[in-house]
Amino acid sequence: MLSLLLLATAFLLPAALSAPAEEPARFMERQLVERQGGYYWSFWQEGGGSHNCQNGAGGSYTAKWSGGGGFVCGKGWQPGGSRAVKYSGTYTPVGPGYLALYGWTQSPLIEYYIVDNYDVLAPGEPWTFKGNFTSEEGDYSVYTSQRVNKPSIEGTRTFMQYWSVRSEKRTGGTITTGTHFSQWQKLGMNLGRHSYMILATEGFTNSSYPTPSGSSSITLS
């Protein structure tokens, strides 16, 4: 049976931006965290639209979304860190969002993405290009961005985001996180103590794409 660790119910807010600073909407509006079979499962959502994420057996999960708002769901580990993450599945997005290895560190507080697939790259903050690298798993471009007074796993904070974006999109393969961490460090992008890390499906809306949609079915192996 699933072991339910945390269920933070939705705040009655007209929109995510109306959340008070001490209760960041991104992480507190609605988040479900579970552990199952050694995996860590996280599902967060906000705003309108339909976001249906289902925690499956073993290392599997499914997601289907449409309309407005935003969500992130996925399966992985707590804590994260250096690991060869093998996965397979399907991913069919329309609009902004990512299929990515997604995680956080603390001291320093960093939000990071290793992006394997996407339809529209539409980051919330401007990206700063840091460089390229090639590994046996593919070619990647590296970026940073900064979020100022935004929700985080520590509440409202200012923090950096690190990005590796794969040049050739794929849905399935191996992501060796330590390779990215090492390349980031060479570029002066240091990580801290690892919090959770998940193979995530994310979708969100913006002014150019008000109704994103799509589906994914992912299995960690």
Automatic annotation (TrEMBL):
It is an enzyme of class 3 (hydrolase). It catalyses: Endohydrolysis of (1->4)-beta-D-xylosidic linkages in xylans. Keywords: Carbohydrate metabolism, Glycosidase, Hydrolase, Polysaccharide degradation, Signal, Xylan degradation. InterPro entries: ConA-like_dom_sf (IPR013320), GH11/12 (IPR013319), GH11_AS_1 (IPR018208), GH11_dom (IPR033123), Glyco_hydro_11 (IPR001137). The active site is at residues 111, 202. Pathway: Glycan degradation; xylan degradation. Residues 27-215 form the GH11 domain. PROSITE patterns: GH11_1, GH11_3. One of its GO terms (biological process) is xylan catabolic process. The keyword Hydrolase applies. It comes from the Eukaryota. Belongs to the glycosyl hydrolase 11 (cellulase G) family. This is Endo-1,4-beta-xylanase. The lineage of its organism: Eukaryota, Fungi, Dikarya, Ascomycota, Pezizomycotina.
